[in-house]
Amino acid sequence: MTDDTTRTAYRTCPLCEAACGLELTVTGDRIVSARGDQRHVFSGGFICPKGATLGQLTADPDRLRRPLVRRGDRHEEVGWDEAFEAVEAGLRPILERHGPDAVALYLGNPNVHTMAGGLYVSPLLRAVGSRNIFSASTVDQMPKHVACGYLYGNPLAIPVPDVDRTDLLLVLGANPWESNGSLATAADFPGRLKAIQARGGRFVVVDPRRTRTAEHADEHLFIRPGTDAYLLFGIVHTLFEEGLTDLGRLAGHVTGVEAVRELARAFAPEVVTAACAVPADRIRGLARELAAAPTAAVYGRIGTCTVEFGTLTNWLVDVVNVLTGNLDRPGGAMFPLAAHLRTRPQPGGKGFRVGRWQSRVRGLPEVRGELPVATLADEMETPGDGQVRAFVTVAGNPVLSTPNSGRLDRALGGLEFMVSVDPYLNETTRHADVVLPPSDATRKGHYDFSFLGLAVRNFAAYSPPVLPPDPAEMDECDILARLTLIVTGKGADADPAELHEHMLQEMLQKAASADLRKLVDGDHPAERLLDVALRTGAYGDQFGARPDGLSLARLLANPHGIDLGPLQPRIPEILQTPSGTIELCHPAIAADVSRLSEALPRRRDDLVLVGRRHLRSNNSWMHNVPALVKGRDRCTLHMHPKDAERFALTDGDEAEVMSRAGTVAVRVEVTDKVMPGVVSLPHGWGHGLPGTRMSVAAERPGVNSNVLTDEYATDPLSGNSVLNGIPVEIKALA
Ligand SMILES: Nc1nc2c(c(=O)[nH]1)N[C@H]1C(S)=C(S)[C@@H](COP(=O)(O)OP(=O)(O)OC[C@H]3O[C@@H](n4cnc5c(=O)[nH]c(N)nc54)[C@H](O)[C@@H]3O)O[C@H]1N2
Ligand SMILES: Nc1nc2c(c(=O)[nH]1)N[C@H]1C(S)=C(S)[C@@H](COP(=O)(O)OP(=O)(O)OC[C@H]3O[C@@H](n4cnc5c(=O)[nH]c(N)nc54)[C@H](O)[C@@H]3O)O[C@H]1N2
Ligand code: SF4
Ligand SMILES: [Mo]
C-alpha cells in the first residue's frame, strides 16, 4: 500500500554554495516538485535549474541504494554486512602489513554539502592516520586558505565581498551568473549584483571569457589566463605611487605595509600590461576607482586559484582590500560569523604553517593536513616504502576532476584495494572493490557547516530529513562511523552508536565544563552534535544561560531560517597571527614574488586552455539528470574566430587538442566570447567509460578536460593544481 498524502517540506538545497531554501511538494515518498522558498530569510524564493531537479536527482534510477562488491570486472549488489566485511578484509591487512601511509584517502566536493562530511570525515582521517590525505581543495580553493592563513593566522578566516552594501565590486575569475557563487554564499548572486547597479554602484569583471556575469557588468576586461597577480600588483603599485592607500580603521592592526610597497615597485601598470593584456590606463583607473569609492571590494574565485600564481593572486586580492581600507568594513570584504562557531576572547595565536610533512615521491609540502592531489598517481605508481596500495574515496570523482586524470585512471587500476562512499558507479568508483552508497538528500538532515561561515549575511537554517530513513539504505554518518570502527580494529560489525556517543561526549567536553548530556536535543547523531555546536556557539542559548539564543529546537521551529543580521566587523578578534595583526607581508609570500618577477618577461603567444561552468552542470555528477543535459551539446571547445581561422577550423568541426599530458578530440564552437589565444572546455565530462552505471550521462559523454591538464603544474605555496592557462596545440580532424 502506498501513502499518497501530499505535503510541503522545506529544505536547504545541498547542491551548491548558494544554500537556497527549497519548498518541496512531497507525495508519499516522492518529491514531486521543488520551488524556491519565498519566505526563506536568505534566498527569498530564488532557485536555479539544479535545485528544481532535486526530486529527479534523488529518484535517479541509476542511483545506488545497496552496496556493491566487485567480482571480476562486474559489480554486484550485496547486503550491508557483507560489504563492510569486504572492506575489513581488504583494508585491515594492508594497514597491518604496510602501515597507515599505504592507505590514501580522497575527499570530494560534496563533503562540504553534507553533515556527514562536516562531522564524520575527521574521525575517519584520524583513525587511519595516513599522511596521504588528498581532496578537491587542491584543485580548487587551497590558495585562498594559504593566503588567509598567512594574512590572518587562520586559513578559514576568509573574507567575503559585502555585495549587498558595496558601491564597487571588482570580480576576478568568477562567474556567479552560472556558478551561483563560491567562497561567497549569496543566494541569487545575479540579483544581488543587479542591486549594486540599481543603487548607483558598479561591478567590473576580469575574465579571459565574456561570461554571462561579464555581459551584465558595467565593464569587462579580458585578461591573459594566469596573470591576475600582475594586474593586482599593478593596482597595488598605483595605490602606493599615487598616495591612494588609506587603511581607515585597520590602522594599528596591520603590519608589513612598507614591505609590500617595496615588493610592488617592480610592477608598474606600464610594465605588467604586456603580460596580462589589461591596458595600463585601466589598471591605474581601477586603483583610483577602488580607492575613491565610498566602499569597494575585490573578489576572486576559481580563475584566481587554479593558476600558476594562485596564492600570490589570492593574497593580492586581500592586500588591495586592506590598502583601500575596505577590509572588515560594511560594503567592503568582511568576515561572516556562523552560528555553530564562537568568537575568540582576544586576538593572536600560533599562526599558520605548512610543510609538517612532505609527499614521498615529489617532496611536496603538506598544507592543512593534506597533500596536493596532483601527486596522487605518483604515490600509487612509485614502488617502495610508503607506496599507496589502498584507496578510500568519499564523495569524489578524481578521475574527472584532477589533472592528468588519464594517468590517475590507470593508477587506480593497479591498486590492491579500493572502497568508495558514493551513490554512483562512475569513472572513479568503477575501480572500487566496494561501493557504499549513502542515502540521498531527502533522507538526511542538512546544516551548512561550511557555507554559513561564508555567507554575505549572517543567518542559520537547519532542515530535518524530508523522508523517514529507508531501513534497506544506510545513512552516511553511519557509513563513515562504521569505516572508522573497521580501521580502528573494532570490526565490521561494530555498532556505530558507540562512535556517535563518543563524539558527542568529546564535543561536550570541549565546549562546556558541566555534564550537559541530558540537555542535548536531536533524533540523529548529527543533530545532537549540531545542537551542542549551536548552543555553545556565537548566538547560542548557552544551555539556558541565554534563553533567547539559538539551539536545534529554535532552528527546527524556523523552517525558513533565522536571519542574524548584516556582517559585523571582526578585526582584531578574528586574527590568529603570532603578532595579533594582519601580517600583510609574510616571508613565505614575499619569497614567491621573485617567481612572479622572473616570469614577467616570458613570451605569451602560445594557445592556452581555460575551463568554464554551465548553470545546469555541477562538476562531474549531475549529467545523469535528463532535464539538466537536454538541449545542445555543451562540452565543446570555445575558440575565437581569429584562432579558428589560424587553424582552418569552422564552427562544428572536430579538432584534436593536445597538451603535455594528453589528447582529446572535441567539437569546436567558434565564438568571440573567448579572447584570442584562449580556448575553453568545461570540466566534469568524459562519461560512458566501461564499468560505469550512469545511463543518461553515457548518452552524451563529452570529453574529459582533465586529460589535458598537467599534474606537474602546481602553485608551490598551496600545492594547488594549475587548471587554467594550460598550453595546448590544436589540429583539425578530417
Ligand atoms: N579542469 C578543471 N578541473 C576541475 C575544476 C575546474 O574548474 N577545471 N574544478 C575543480 C573543483 S572547484 C572541484 S570542487 C572539483 C570537484 O571534484 P570532485 O569532488 O572529485 O568531483 P565531483 O564531480 O564534485 O564529484 C562528486 C562525487 O560525489 C558523489 N556524491 C554526490 N552526492 C554525494 C553525497 O551526498 N555523499 C557522497 N558520499 N557522495 C556524493 C558523486 O556521485 C561524485 O562521485 O573539481 C575540480 N576540477
Ligand atoms: N553551475 C555550476 N555551478 C557551480 C559548479 C558547477 O560545476 N556548475 N561548481 C561549484 C564549484 S565546486 C565551485 S568551486 C564554484 C566555482 O565558482 P566560480 O569561480 O564562479 O566558477 P567558474 O565558472 O569556474 O568561474 C571561473 C572563471 O574564471 C575564468 N578564468 C579562467 N582563468 C582565469 C584567469 O587566469 N584569470 C581570470 N581573471 N579569470 C580566469 C573562467 O573563464 C571562468 O569564467 O562553482 C560552484 N557552482
Ligand atoms: S543556486 Fe545552488 S543552492 Fe540554489 S537552487 Fe541552485 S543549486 Fe541549489
Ligand atoms: Mo569547487
From TrEMBL:
Keyword Ribosomal protein included in the entry's annotation: no
InterPro entries membership: Asp_de-COase-like_dom_sf, MoPterin_dinucl-bd_dom, Mopterin_OxRdtase, Mopterin_OxRdtase_4Fe-4S_dom, Prok_molybdopt-oxidoreductase
Protein name: Molybdopterin-binding oxidoreductase
PANTHER family: NADPH-FE(3+) OXIDOREDUCTASE SUBUNIT ALPHA (PTHR43105:SF9), RESPIRATORY NITRATE REDUCTASE (PTHR43105)
Annotated 4Fe-4S Mo/W bis-MGD-type domain residues: 6-62
Cellular component aspect of the GO annotation: membrane
A Pfam entry, by short name: Molybdopterin
Molecular function terms from GO: 4 iron, 4 sulfur cluster binding; metal ion binding; molybdopterin cofactor binding; oxidoreductase activity
Keywords: 4Fe-4S, Iron, Iron-sulfur, Metal-binding, Oxidoreductase
